[in-house]
Structure formats: structure tokens, C-alpha cells
Recover the amino acids of this structure.
């Protein structure tokens, strides 16, 4: 059979790769190290038995949106929900990017921002971050004035570098960017502040969040954004009808009832992150500051790829960023349980010696 050609603009597109390998200690995809509380699982099992399986889900997901909105002090009309924050971002880009439009990113950052934007047919303009991977305002000024982007991305804490943008940075980018500013806060709960407080009806700003990390629900694929009402209404027109299944709507609504447990887990991960960073700093490594549940580092006297392989030989899998642009020799480790982190720290100490 003859292959049918894909769209011309997709012919050179590469897929997003994140290898899944079977190992003892998996610290490569920034998931939560433990599952949700047992009481959540039990409540979910009860609710599952009551589902009207012959009926479509609530198309507006009102109960879930109300529950998420309450977390941020806003109503359901300011919350858009989808299958993971990746689908949230895809819906934003289908609505505001697309052919003939421009999207700005500041690299290195989360690869999916540019990747999804290209799939919608938009032109992606890549600005550069400063040497310490913070946002360089003169570069923002250059990119924004040259390209007049329809959508500009920030990522705070930034994946894979870990840094948090200061409130003044988000405000300054907002003042400069002519179109929509998206602040991806997939790791927002691990940082000291959130841009959600800057959202109002007159400001072209949205903040995206996920249940995959803090809420220990990566298996369920649930993400959302907080934004102005008019913008959420536009996204609701673009997303497929009934895109969010009943199981997920129930799971998300139940999860937010466990806010105290989740906050406790965040506190434990942040404490563990500080412990891991201190331990890494005494090794032959450059360690970048992190406000997330992962840490980026660069071995000083060994190639990053060799260190990654050495860890894999100890059955510890972390993320190899060493061949990514601007990230020569860099590796990223997700904070795990104290036992997993100990395994990682003793393995890397051996590998480096
Ligand atoms: N944004 C960032 C910065 C991420 O790191 C991730 C997960 N790797 C996502 C969004 C997507 O998260 P999900 O689709 O699981 O909600």
C-alpha cells in the first residue's frame, strides 16, 4: 500500500520521546513518588459503582470545575479542564495559535509548548534564557517586538531547569507581550507563589496546572487552567464535546477533598528536594536551583550521558537531557521517596568516583 503523505508542515516533525524502562528506581518523569491516599481510592471505588455507564458525561464538568475553582477562589466559569495539562495547552493553542500565527517560547523549556504549537500550524519563535536559565528581559523585549507573538509561554517552575519566575518577571512579560500569556505551572505547588493571583477579566493571562504531580494522579490524565471567563468560554467551543469522561470527573472532584494530605505531601517533597540538593552539591556537580519536584545538574568531570548510563547500570533511571540544546551534559532527577533518593545518591556517588 502506498503511504499517504502527512501535511507538508509535519513531514519533518519528530515525536516527543521519554523512554519508559523497567528499573528499581524510576526518577525520570516528575511523577509523585506515592499514590493518592487510601481513603481516596476507597471513595472512588464506591462512586464507580454508581456511574450511569449508558450516559455521556456532564459535558460542562460543572461539579469538577466548581471544586477546582474553590481551590483558587474562583467560579467554575474561570476553570477549563482537559485530559492532562498537555491537552489544556493544545486547546489553548488550537484557539489562539494555528496557521499564520506566532508562538514565543524561551528555551530551554518544556518541549511540548513548541511541539504542540507547531502541530497547530503556528510558527514558533524561540528566545533564549540567560546563562542561569532565568528569563532575560532584554531577550523578551527583542522577541516580542520582532515577532509580535499571539501566544507567549512562561513555565514556572521551568521544566527541565527548575527555576521559578519572580512575580516581577511575569508582570513585565505581561506588559510587553501583545497576545496571550500562558504561565505553565505544572509544578506550581512546589514553588513559593502562583501567577493565578494576577488573573482578571481584563488581563490576557492564563495559568495551567495538572493533577499528574502533586495530586498523584498521572494515571488519570487531568489538567486545568485558570483564566478570564471570556477566554474559558472560547476554549469550551474548541474542545471536543464530552472530552472528559465521567470517571475522571469523579476522580478529580474526590481528589480535591484531600487537599490537606496533598499539601503535606508537597511539604515532604520540598524538604526532600532540599536534602537531595545539599547532597548533590558536595559532589563534582553543578546543581541548578529548583522550585519544583526535580533537580537539574551537570557533572563537572564526566560526560552527562556516561553518568546517566552508570546510574541505569545501578537500576536508577533519571532523565537524560545531555543532548538537548543549551543543556550539554545536563541530567534531571525527580524527587522520590527518601529510600529512592538514597538509592540515587549512593549510586551517583559511586558512578562519579
Ligand atoms: N507542563 C509541564 C511543564 C510539564 O512538565 C508537564 C509534564 N511533563 C506537563 C505540562 C504535562 O502534564 P500533564 O499532561 O500530565 O498534565
Amino acid at each position: 500500500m502506498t503511504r499517504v503523505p502527512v501535511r507538508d508542515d509535519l513531514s519533518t516533525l519528530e515525536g516527543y520521546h521519554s523512554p519508559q524502562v523497567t528499573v528499581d528506581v524510576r526518577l525520570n518523569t516528575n511523577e509523585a513518588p506515592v499514590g493518592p491516599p487510601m481513603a481516596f481510592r476507597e471513595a472512588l471505588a464506591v462512586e464507580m459503582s454508581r456511574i450511569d455507564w449508558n450516559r455521556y458525561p456532564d459535558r460542562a464538568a460543572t461539579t469538577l470545575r466548581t471544586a477546582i475553582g474553590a481551590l483558587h477562589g474562583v467560579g467554575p466559569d474561570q476553570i477549563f479542564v482537559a485530559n492532562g495539562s498537555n491537552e489544556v495547552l493544545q486547546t489553548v493553542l488550537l484557539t489562539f495559535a494555528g496557521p499564520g500565527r506566532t508562538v514565543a517560547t524561551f528555551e530551554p523549556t518544556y518541549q511540548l509548548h513548541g511541539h504542540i504549537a507547531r502541530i497547530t500550524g503556528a510558527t514558533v519563535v524561540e528566545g533564549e534564557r540567560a546563562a542561569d536559565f532565568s528569563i532575560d528581559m532584554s531577550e523578551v523585549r527583542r522577541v516580542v517586538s520582532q515577532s509580535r507573538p499571539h501566544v507567549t509561554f512562561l513555565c514556572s517552575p521551568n521544566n527541565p531547569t527548575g527555576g521559578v519566575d519572580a512575580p516581577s518577571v511575569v508582570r513585565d512579560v505581561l506588559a510587553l507581550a501583545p497576545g496571550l500569556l500562558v504561565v505553565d505551572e505544572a509544578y506550581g505547588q512546589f514553588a513559593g507563589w502562583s501567577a493565578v493571583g494576577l488573573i482578571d477579566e481584563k488581563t490576557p493571562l492564563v495559568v495551567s496546572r495538572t493533577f499528574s504531580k502533586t495530586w498523584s494522579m498521572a494515571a488519570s490524565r487531568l489538567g486545568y487552567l485558570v483564566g478570564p471567563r471570556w477566554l474559558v468560554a472560547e476554549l469550551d467551543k474548541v474542545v471536543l464535546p464530552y472530552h472528559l469522561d465521567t470517571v475522571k470527573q469523579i476522580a478529580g472532584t474526590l481528589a480535591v477533598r484531600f487537599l490537606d494530605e496533598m499539601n503535606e505531601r508537597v511539604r515532604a517533597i520540598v524538604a526532600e528536594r532540599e536534602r537531595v540538593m545539599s547532597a548533590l552539591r558536595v559532589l563534582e556537580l553543578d546543581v541548578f536551583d529548583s522550585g519544583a519536584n526535580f533537580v537539574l545538574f551537570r557533572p563537572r568531570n564526566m560526560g552527562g550521558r556516561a553518568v546517566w548510563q552508570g546510574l541505569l547500570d545501578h537500576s536508577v533511571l533519571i532523565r537524560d537531557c545531555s543532548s538537548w540544546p543549551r543543556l550539554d551534559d545536563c541530567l534531571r532527577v525527580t524527587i522520590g521517596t527518601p529510600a529512592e533518593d538514597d538509592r540515587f545518591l549512593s549510586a551517583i556517588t559511586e558512578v562519579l568516583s
Summary: The chain is about 35% helix and 15% strand. The domain at 40-257 is CATH 3.40.640.10 (Aspartate Aminotransferase; domain 2). The mean pLDDT is 96.
